[in-house]
Amino acid sequence: MKNIDMKYGDTHITFPIDENNIVQIIEGNPFNLGKTEDEIILDSLANPINSPRLKDIVHNGEKICIVISDVTRAWQRPYKFLSPIVEELNSAGIPDKDIIFLSATGTHRKQTEKEHENLLGAELHKRFDVIDHDCLDQNNLVYLGETSYGTPVWMNKIAMECDHIVITGSIVYHLLAGWAGGKKSILPGISGYDTIMANHALSLGKNIGDGSNPLVRSGSIANNPVHNDMLEAAAFVKPSFMFNVIMGSDGNIAAAVSGDYVEAHAMGRDLVNRIDGVKIHRKADLVIGSAGGYPKDINLYQSSKTLINMNEAAKDGAALILISQCREGLGGDSDIKDIILNYDNILDREKSLRERYSISKFIGYYVCELAEKYDFIMVSDIDENLVKNANIKVVSTMYEALNIVYEKKGKSLETILMPKGANTLPILEN
Question: Which residues form the LarA-like N-terminal domain (predicted)?
Answer without folding.
Answer: 8-205
